């Protein structure tokens, strides 16, 4: 379980950084969203999930009331709050992107489209 979680955090981070370096504003916003999801998963994984160790998520009768036997609820609350705030910020960024595209006619990060012959190929090389 830990390997799967670590790999998913790595894939989300790598994909987010790749999208963050793209020339279009929409791709940059999606990259920031993926990086925030990776950070949320990382924080969530630090809270002693108890998936592999059999720790209880809530207090139960018969289990000693000691933190070693329970999952930490604080990272779960922080991640839930971060998800809500991240969704609101992504929606706000998309509205600003649409307004900017309506005013400038492009969603390029620099605000202007590169000339026709200067656009990179699929492999990133310029002609």
Automatic annotation (TrEMBL):
<feature type="compositionally biased region" description="Acidic residues">
    <location>
        <begin position="116"/>
        <end position="127"/>
    </location>
</feature>
<feature type="transmembrane region" description="Helical">
    <location>
        <begin position="77"/>
        <end position="99"/>
    </location>
</feature>
<dbReference type="GO" id="GO:0005886">
    <property type="term" value="C:plasma membrane"/>
</dbReference>
<feature type="region of interest" description="Disordered">
    <location>
        <begin position="108"/>
        <end position="127"/>
    </location>
</feature>
<feature type="transmembrane region" description="Helical">
    <location>
        <begin position="28"/>
        <end position="47"/>
    </location>
</feature>
<keyword id="KW-0812">Transmembrane</keyword>
<dbReference type="InterPro" id="IPR039428">
    <property type="entry name" value="NUOK/Mnh_C1-like"/>
</dbReference>
<feature type="transmembrane region" description="Helical">
    <location>
        <begin position="6"/>
        <end position="21"/>
    </location>
</feature>
<comment type="similarity">
    <text>Belongs to the CPA3 antiporters (TC 2.A.63) subunit C family.</text>
</comment>
<keyword id="KW-1133">Transmembrane helix</keyword>
<dbReference type="InterPro" id="IPR050601">
    <property type="entry name" value="CPA3_antiporter_subunitC"/>
</dbReference>
<protein>
    <submittedName>
        <fullName>Na+/H+ antiporter subunit C</fullName>
    </submittedName>
</protein>
<dbReference type="Pfam" id="PF00420">
    <property type="entry name" value="Oxidored_q2"/>
</dbReference>
<keyword id="KW-1003">Cell membrane</keyword>
<keyword id="KW-0472">Membrane</keyword>
